Amino acid sequence: MFKKILIANRGEIACRVIETATRLGVRTVAVYSEADRNARHVEMADEAVLIGAAEVGESYLKADVILEAAKQTGAEAIHPGYGFLSENADFADKCEKAGIVFIGPPASAIRAMGLKDAAKALMTKAGVPVVPGYHGESQDADLLAREAERIGYPVLIKAVAGGGGKGMRSVMTAADFPAALLSAQREGQSAFGDGRVLIEKYLTKPRHIEIQVFADSHGNAVHLFERDCSLQRRHQKVIEEAPAPDMPETMRAAMGAAAVAAAKAIGYVGAGTIEFIADVSNGLKEDAFYFMEMNTRLQVEHPVTEMITGQDLVEWQLRVASGEALPRRQEELAINGHAFEVRLYAEDPANDFLPATGPLLRLRAPRAGASVRIDTGVRQGDSVTPYYDPMIAKLIVHGETREAALQTLSRALDDYQVAGVATNLGFLRQIARHPAFAAKDLDTGFIERFRADLVPASPLPTDEELALATLYLLLDRQRVTALRSAAANDRYSPWNDLTAWRPNDTGHDDFRFEIGGENVTVVARYTRAGIQIDLPGGSRLAEGNWTPDGGIAARLDGHVLSGAVVRQGVKMVVMTSGRQVEIVEHVADFNALSSEGGSGVITSPMPGKLIQLFVKAGEEVAVGDPLVVIEAMKMEHTLTAFRDGVIEDVFFEVGDQVDEGAVLVRLADEETS
Question: Which residue, of 17, 118, 355, 631, has the greatest Cβ tally within 10 A?
Answer without folding.
Answer: 17
